[in-house]
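> example.struct
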């Protein structure tokens, strides 16, 4: 990484700034503001040495090299140990290259013990005196570099720490320019711009663009700034300050990709080692930003120069480091980069956008609702309020609400609601709850934790029992109502389907990137009830209304649907249509980058007939996603034939001649999950055996496709050419789960695998019940039925796209 970055900087100086000798030119001042043990500085000096040698330098080479190390190649380091090591490394390099430092003359390299993020401006008051005069000299020497040297290159590997803590006033103010307008202009209320690497980017941008006026910045850092909405102002500022920008995305992220390349192969961090094969958890990118000079360029309406070269490329897999360095040998790197087109419509994303021609003209999901979507519930009580077993949860909460059980007795069996946590005083919280309400059986509710993973929860609006009880969401959760669920931005890769349907109260992390719930109907929130007799939020006399914005109603009226309040089916037409579009592979593929950057944008059909046909598909999807409605086939017809044919999927089998022992054979011990830090469940590899279909399985699946009007080839294109057996333990398995069913991902979660990870025997504390074994079968069959709808969903999407309504807000 270091070799590549230094090589790219040297080339940029030569090709973009017209400095023929690159880093070896005496006008080039270099700074690594977080130099650590000096790796970048060593490589810079080595590059200078090689350039001087190639140029034919003679006895003056050693003098020029040592002069560079002392007078124009600088490093800042805040920690004493790496500071000492960097001096040692640079001293040894110079000695080995025939340019040793003189102890007699007190020669030293330009590495200083200092906080790189402060001291760039003269102090407002008297200069602070330090205990040791040597530290004062070090500080003053560093501040001379900061204020007097005309830095042309800033490079390095700044620290990534989103919880950097309290910092000096000067350092805290660094990122304020990147926050301007985030809320008012962009509507972004939650953001984390206090990660240390962002401060270093601001420092480099200010130094090069605002002070020197030209130069090069090259950092490897967390890659979140490339497209995350929080960094939109930062990206726009970069586009205004720099003329050419290149980004090498090194991937290797555990959250977004699970450290897997698109084809499913391992994708470790670029910082992986033999001892730590995965490296760091976050994905990384190398950003190379070049400012040619202060020449004015014509500006577009958004205030940015018309000419901006932004290049982007991916590196994946275990050979990415080697691939990176080898790319330096190519004299023309430009063709390797895909051009990005950052503008206001994609929040100035540095990632290339893949969207259909009119995608950004389509409305986003929130445009359809009169009521803004609400975040799901956030517990943060170690699962004390959410449980797989209803009886266990009821017993726990009845005991919690029983005033005769004193605090000490309650703590004898500790749970997340008896332990203190951030902003949660457990004892005070209980006292407040007991004063406010009684135990209420009606508050034991079905709860959607993850796609297809339903639990039980005990709901209370009394803060802080739940970390975030979402009191405006709960009143919309009543029998007969339902929710579409989505997220404001995609954070998972692969994300799969970015939308869902549920009739249940749901979790904030139901989808990766935080789930928001759009009620199909809304009841106005009743006045706050203060007495115990009035505490139930379950029902109230206020009549529900369709959750439709004025623009959505206007759209329906233009299609001849004048009374969307007439019945629930008419009220839900737009929402069911959105569900059908959101499950179309063609829609997801054509608009991948646009969907990732924002709420999904949904094309609306320009005719009533198209809308009703699309909504009918959406209702079929909704029925398959509704885990509270059993998957029962009618007595006859297409659906009966399909459901019957799908019975061959996920059959529970044992080795021949084995008699069922429920305690043994229902136990999940194949390694599907384990406990991580902080009680988080981490997925494991488990055990699956991929194989060909048997003849009987192939015939049954072909019959299911036939019921949908699909040719056999189409059917297996939907479900996959291979199937697999998914093992609970060494003996028992669910046999014949088609590969596309097994791999099916919703909201960043591989559905069946995620469900299993929570049911590993050591975590669950018991074997599965027979109903749970059957639920996995039902889950697989529901997903298979959704996959068999994909040709119809794609055809519907293309038809709607070609006859789209021109939505104007």
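> example.seq
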């Amino acid at each position: 990484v270091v070799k590549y970055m230094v090589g790219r900087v040297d080339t940029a100086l030569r090709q973009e700034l017209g400095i023929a000798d690159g880093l070896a030119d005496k006008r080039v001042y270099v700074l690594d503001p977080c130099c650590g043990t000096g790796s970048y500085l060593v490589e810079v000096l080595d590059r200078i040495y090689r350039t001087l040698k190639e140029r034919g330098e003679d006895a003056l080479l050693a003098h020029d090299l040592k002069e560079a190390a002392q007078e124009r190649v600088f490093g800042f380091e805040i920690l004493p140990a790496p500071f000492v090591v960097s001096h040692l490394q640079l001293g040894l390099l110079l000695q080995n290259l025939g340019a040793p430092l003189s102890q007699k003359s007190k020669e030293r390299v330009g590495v200083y013990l200092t906080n790189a993020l402060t001291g760039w401006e003269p102090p407002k008051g008297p200069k602070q005196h330090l205990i040791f005069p040597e530290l004062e000299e070090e500080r003053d020497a560093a501040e001379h570099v900061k204020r007097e040297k005309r830095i042309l290159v800033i490079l390095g590997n700044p620290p990534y720490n989103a919880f950097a803590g309290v910092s000096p006033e000067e350092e805290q103010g660094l990122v304020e320019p990147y926050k301007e307008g985030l809320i008012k202009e962009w509507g972004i209320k939650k953001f984390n711009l206090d990660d240390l690497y962002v401060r270093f980017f601001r420092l480099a941008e200010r130094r090069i663009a605002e002070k020197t006026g030209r130069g090069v910045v090259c950092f490897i850092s967390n890659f979140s700034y490339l497209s995350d909405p929080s960094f939109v102002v930062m990206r726009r500022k970069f586009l205004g300050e720099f003329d050419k920008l290149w980004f090498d995305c090194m991937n290797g992220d555990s959250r977004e990709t699970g450290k897997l390349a698109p084809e499913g192969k391992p994708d470790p961090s670029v910082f992986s080692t033999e001892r730590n094969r995965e490296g760091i958890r976050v994905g990384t990118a190398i950003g190379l930003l070049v400012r040619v000079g202060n020449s004015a360029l014509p500006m577009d309406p958004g205030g940015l120069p018309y000419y901006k070269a932004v290049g982007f490329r991916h590196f994946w897999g275990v050979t990415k480091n080697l691939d990176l360095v080898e790319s330096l040998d190519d004299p023309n790197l430009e063709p390797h980069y895909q051009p990005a087109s950052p503008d206001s419509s994609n929040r100035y994303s540095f990632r290339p956008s893949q969207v259909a021609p009119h995608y950004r003209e389509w409305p986003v999901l929130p445009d359809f609702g009169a009521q803004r979507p609400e975040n799901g519930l956030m517990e943060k009580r170690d699962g004390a309020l959410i449980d797989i077993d209803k009886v266990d949860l009821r017993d726990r909460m009845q005991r919690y609400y029983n005033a005769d059980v004193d605090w000490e007795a309650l703590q004898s069996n500790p749970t997340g609601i008896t332990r203190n946590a951030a902003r949660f005083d457990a004892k005070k919280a209980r006292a407040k709850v007991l004063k406010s309400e009684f135990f209420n059986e009606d508050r034991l509710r079905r709860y959607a934790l993850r796609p297809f993973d339903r639990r039980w929860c005990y709901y209370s609006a009394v803060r802080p029992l739940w970390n975030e009880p979402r009191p405006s969401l709960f009143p919309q959760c009543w029998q007969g109502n339902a929710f579409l669920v989505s997220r404001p931005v995609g954070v998972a890769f692969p994300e799969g389907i970015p939308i869902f349907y549920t009739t249940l109260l749901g979790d904030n992390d139901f989808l990766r990137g935080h789930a928001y719930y759009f009620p199909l109907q809304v009841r106005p929130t009743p006045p706050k009830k203060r007495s115990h007799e009035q505490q139930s939020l379950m029902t109230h006399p206020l009549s529900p209304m369709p959750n439709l914005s004025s623009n959505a109603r206007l759209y329906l009226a233009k299609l001849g649907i004048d009374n969307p309040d007439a019945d629930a089916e008419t009220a839900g037409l737009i929402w069911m249509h959105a569900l059908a579009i959101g499950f179309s592979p063609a829609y997801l593929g054509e608009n991948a980058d646009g969907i990732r950057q924002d709420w999904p944008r949904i094309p609306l059909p320009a005719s009533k007939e198209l809308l009703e046909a699309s909504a009918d598909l959406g209702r079929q999807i909704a029925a398959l996603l509704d885990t509270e409605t059993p998957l029962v086939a009618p007595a006859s017809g297409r659906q009966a034939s399909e459901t019957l044919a799908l019975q061959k999927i996920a059959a529970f089998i044992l080795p021949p001649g084995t008699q069922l022992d429920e305690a043994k054979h229902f136990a999940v011990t194949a390694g599907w999950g384990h406990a991580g830090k902080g009680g988080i469940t981490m997925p494991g590899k488990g055990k699956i055996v991929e194989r060909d279909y048997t003849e009987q399985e192939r015939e049954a699946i072909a019959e299911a496709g036939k019921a949908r009007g699909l040719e056999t080839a189409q059917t297996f294109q939907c479900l996959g050419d291979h199937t697999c057996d998914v093992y609970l333990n060494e003996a028992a398995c669910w046999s014949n789960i088609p590969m596309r069913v097994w791999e099916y991902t919703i909201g960043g979660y591989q559905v069946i695998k995620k469900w299993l990870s929570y049911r590993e025997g050591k975590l669950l504390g018991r074997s599965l019940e027979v109903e749970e074994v059957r639920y996995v079968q039902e889950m697989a069959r529901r997903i298979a039925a959704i996959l068999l709808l994909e040709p119809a969903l794609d055809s519907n999407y293309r038809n709607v796209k070609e006859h789209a309504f021109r939505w104007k807000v």
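> remarks
The chain has 27 helices and 27 strands.
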